[in-house]
């Protein structure tokens, strides 16, 4: 029996040499040390032994069991170490590989220009207001002194939704909404940025949807010279200290008198070039003194209060500032265009 045990030990240790993974090792353990294994079998036969033999064989059997047990344990350690090494090898990160550069987003140039304009006017004490893009005919036209069938409505070809509702053609309705909300209080000093819509055919200088910024100041004794000074301050902050303005008489139903405002051409500094059509001047906005009827309809007594207003196209302001030659660039989202504004 002793020889049997020794042979078993040798056989087991030999077999163990070729075991290389946890699963086979577990099968091995069951095979040799399990209840149905040969060791248990041999030990079961111990009852037949004499009293002298039993302790001797018992000791040998225990030695064989612990020899196999120890060998299994050290094999287990070896396998675990190998498995860990393999995992580390598989999961290593090659820090010498060149990195992938994330593309950097940026504020859209139009929004940037809106922010710049807002900053300039906020610096002069204005607040920023907004109004709806789907607007009532009343606010877009009637309350701005453009009654139904008034020929000046033709100046702005309109997307009507119903008889009463339309896509606003300008940001001027926010003037009326603000005056109504203020209920006769002064001062009002606001600018209103927003999207506007017109039935225009899109080309390099026209878009059916574009952006405006409206301005409105209402108080006692507001004069045309205030308008002029404000706009001069604005254009000099926007285009540089050497920029000059001139006011040309014009017509808008909601202002009287009305003026279109030109700035000296930033490209040729007034000498005349292709951009300013050889005039040295470039038109940038419409403006005027708020018409008494507009004040009256919005609840302000024109004998007591006066005001000025102006409205400008943001795309146009941006095109002049950055030398952009086609308004459609703002809306087509071509990254070759947009990437040029990452760091402005
Ligand atoms: N709403 C005018 C337009 O879209 C621009 C404008 C002109 C606004 C004169 C004004 C203004 O507030 O006083 O063409």
Automatic annotation (TrEMBL):
Listed EC numbers: 6.1.1.20
Molecular functions per Gene Ontology: phenylalanine-tRNA ligase activity
One Pfam family in the UniProt entry: Phe_tRNA-synt_N
Sorted UniProt keywords: Aminoacyl-tRNA synthetase, ATP-binding, Cytoplasm, Ligase, Magnesium, Metal-binding, Nucleotide-binding, Protein biosynthesis
Cofactor: Mg(2+)
Keyword Aminoacyl-tRNA synthetase (UniProt): yes
CDD domains: PheRS_alpha_core
Catalytic activity reported: tRNA(Phe) + L-phenylalanine + ATP = L-phenylalanyl-tRNA(Phe) + AMP + diphosphate + H(+)
Claim: Nucleotide-binding is one of the keywords in the record: yes
Cofactor note: Binds 2 magnesium ions per tetramer.
Binding site for Mg(2+): 256
Every Aminoacyl-transfer RNA synthetases class-II family profile domain range: 111-320
Main localization, broad class: cytoplasm
Subcellular location: Cytoplasm
Signal peptide: none
InterPro entries: aa-tRNA-synth_II, aa-tRNA-synth_II/BPL/LPL, Phe-tRNA-synth_IIc_asu, Phe-tRNA_ligase_II_N, Phe_tRNA_ligase_alpha1_bac, Phenylalanyl-tRNA_Synthase, tRNA-bd_arm
Family per similarity comment: Belongs to the class-II aminoacyl-tRNA synthetase family. Phe-tRNA synthetase alpha subunit type 1 subfamily.
Assembly with partners or alone: Tetramer of two alpha and two beta subunits.
Protein name: Phenylalanine--tRNA ligase alpha subunit
Organism of derivation: Chengkuizengella axinellae
Gene field: pheS
